[in-house]
Amino acid sequence: MSEKVLELEHVNAYYRENRQRKQILKDVTFSIYEGDIVGLVGASGSGKSTLCKAVLGLLKEYDGEIRHFTNRPQMVFQDPFRSLNPRKTIGWILEEPLKIHTRLSAKERKEQACKYLEKVHLSGEFYDRYPRELSGGQRQRVSLALALISGAKFILADEPLSALDVTVQAQILQLLKELKDSEGVSYLFVSHDIDVVSMICNRVLFLKDGHITEIEREQGKDANL
Ligand SMILES: Nc1ncnc2c1ncn2[C@@H]1O[C@H](COP(=O)(O)OP(=O)(O)OP(=O)(O)O)[C@@H](O)[C@H]1O
């Protein structure tokens, strides 16, 4: 049996608007296990971002239990250009968590950064480049390398493919699957596109009117992944 990485139990979440309390999530209960790729699907405004904020501990008003069993999750965003510091090189960006959390020397940090670039199939030549010098798909690869080098075992991917064209989408989907196998990461994969979700996710959560319903899928069935 796989280890649990995240558990939500009876989570209700609210926003305040004109002094009124508006409930967005209603009695949301689910778990994510090691090696899971869980899709989170719902119409615009159904509460997907609110659920992500809850998981990341960014919601002010909620009740219920949210338990993490690994390091804090890392986010991969729709537009990684906004999450990668435009003034820093890719090497600097990848080494930052190592500067904060480890005592590695500059040489060792560089080796690690290059190792993680390799894991996402980018060559060492990207080390000295700036985010603006990368394509959307390459930036998404750097975001994944950054999540991994930060020690994430659970990645929250919020519409990670929607800014990419179809060919690049397929490559990033393949990479997500590969990293799940090689690095043992799990994902909560947020999307409004059920086709994309059905290509990669082994479980799908549907969010409607604040409630979650879940279906189990046979993993990678539609995509031969
Ligand atoms: N800070 C806030 N204050 C008040 N209401 C909010 C706030 N943030 C979101 N909402 C409302 O909560 C509901 C859920 O929003 P949320 O952003 O979670 O939806 P979503 O499913 O992520 O939508 P989308 O797919 O369009 O990004 C919406 O009705 C939205 O207007």
Explained architecture:
By secondary structure, this protein is an alpha/beta fold. It has 2 domains: 1-73 and 154-168 and 180-225, P-loop containing nucleotide triphosphate hydrolases (Rossmann fold), CATH 3.40.50.300; 79-151, no CATH class. The chain is 35% helix and 30% strand. The chain contains 7 helices and 9 strands, in the order E-E-E-H-E-E-H-H-H-H-E-H-E-H-E-E. The protein has helices at 48-56, 80-83, 90-101, 106-119, 136-149, 166-183, 194-200; strands spanning 4-17, 20-33, 37-42, 62-68, 74-76, 154-158, 186-191, 203-208, 211-216. The strands form 2 sheets. The protein has a 6-stranded mixed β-sheet, with helices on both faces. The protein has a 3-stranded antiparallel β-sheet with strand order 2-1-4, covered by helices on one side. Helix 6 links the parallel strand 6 and strand 7 (186-191). Helix 3 (90-101) crosses helix 4 (106-119), helix 3 runs parallel beside helix 5 and helix 4 (106-119) crosses helix 5. Mean pLDDT is 91; it is low at 220-225. The chain binds adenosine-5'-triphosphate (ATP). Adenosine-5'-triphosphate (ATP) binds next to strand 1 and helix 1. Adenosine-5'-triphosphate (ATP) binds at residues 15, 17, 24, 42, 44-50, 192. This is ABC transporter domain-containing protein. InterPro entries: AAA+_ATPase, ABC_transp_ATP-bind, ABC_transporter-like_ATP-bd, ABC_transporter-like_CS, P-loop_NTPase. Keywords: ATP-binding, Nucleotide-binding, Transport. Residues 6-225 form the ABC transporter domain.
